[in-house]
Q: What sequence folds into this?
C-alpha cells in the first residue's frame, strides 16, 4: 500500500523537466527526484533534501519546495509539540 503523498510534484518546467518530492517508506527519508525531458534523454536523478536545498534558492523548483515547506510551518512559525511533563 502506498502513502497518499509518497510522490508529490514540486515543479514542472515549460521544457518538460519535472521535480518530485518522494518518500521512501523503507528508509523513512524524503528526497527529490529530477526527471529530465524526453529531448534531453529523460534522465532521472535523485537528490537528498539537504543536497537539493543547498544547491540554490533562485530556480523555480527550489522556490516551490521552499514554499511547500513554508506551508508546513505557517505564518505563525512551527507548530508547538506537547512534551511530557515529569
A:
Amino acid at each position: 500500500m502506498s502513502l497518499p503523498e509518497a510522490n508529490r510534484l514540486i515543479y514542472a518546467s515549460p521544457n518538460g523537466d519535472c521535480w518530485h518530492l518522494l518518500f521512501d517508506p523503507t528508509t523513512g527519508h524524503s528526497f527529490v527526484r529530477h526527471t529530465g525531458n524526453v529531448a534531453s534523454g529523460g534522465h532521472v536523478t535523485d537528490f537528498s533534501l539537504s543536497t537539493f536545498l543547498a544547491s540554490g534558492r533562485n530556480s523555480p523548483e527550489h522556490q516551490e519546495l521552499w514554499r511547500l515547506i513554508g506551508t508546513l510551518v505557517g505564518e505563525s512559525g512551527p507548530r508547538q509539540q506537547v512534551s511530557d511533563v515529569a
The mean pLDDT is 84.
